[in-house]
Amino acid sequence: MSDSGLLAGEAADAPRARVRPSDEREHGSLSPEDRRLVARLRAGDEAAFMELVERYQGPLLRLALSFVPSHAVAEEVVQETWLGVIQGIDRFEGRSSLRTWLFRILVNRAKTRGERERRTVPFSALAQAEAGSGEAVMDADRFLPADHAWAGHWTAHPRSWGEGPESRLLAKETTRIVTEAIDALPAGQRAVVSLRDVAGWSSEEVCEELGISEVNQRVLLHRGRTKVRNALERHLDGG
């Protein structure tokens, strides 16, 4: 976010946010952390806003790139998203987590911008084509050949992510590998994996917002997760 004083400027021009009697009822489903953060945002607390930016700027940018044709346009969409947060926080009703709401703002803006930039092709059509591409999810040599008695079974089962020390999974290098693997996914897979595994959306929410079927959602999620898992396996095996 290039203008870190934006929130303070907005708050200075607007009436001071007050806790409404209905706030507790509206936000009954929010975590205590989300409740505190919403209250701080409504009070014009710039540190709270920057906390959100630092936490979600990268994931939002990666998701935006699933919808728009360039990094520059994706950055503009993310900037528009943060403006949407500032302008809409007083109307946030807490029916979902703050994170889910934030990513929904991004998706709505990115879909509109992406369809405008690509002129006529909506994201749902691109995702449907990608899901039906017949792409191989795993390398063929991971399975026993057709002439084997157990054709189609694993030659060796995938490594469990829980086998290694937890510290390795939490290491910055491992996080970088996972992030790069998500960045390298095709647009549809990247969007679905980001929304399911980063934003925490349900499959129903993903299908509704992206305009794709449950079958396509499952295909894209499976392919994307498999590629990320493969990248992590190679990293953990020293490859």
Order of helices and strands: HHHHHHHHHHHH
Number of structural domains: 2
> What structural class results from the helix and strand content?
mainly alpha
| Mean pLDDT figure | 77
Indicate the overall shape. globular
Task: State the end-to-end distance.
Answer: 36 Å
Indicate the CATH class of the largest domain.
Mainly Alpha
Helix content: 55-70%
Strand content: under 5%
CATH homologous superfamily grouping of the largest domain: Winged helix-like DNA-binding domain superfamily/Winged helix DNA-binding domain
What is the β-strand count?
0
Largest sheet: none
Oligomer: single chain
Low-pLDDT parts are: 1-28
CATH topology of the largest domain: Arc Repressor Mutant, subunit A
> Number of helix segments?
12
Rg (C-alpha, Å):
21 Å
CATH architecture type of the largest domain: Orthogonal Bundle
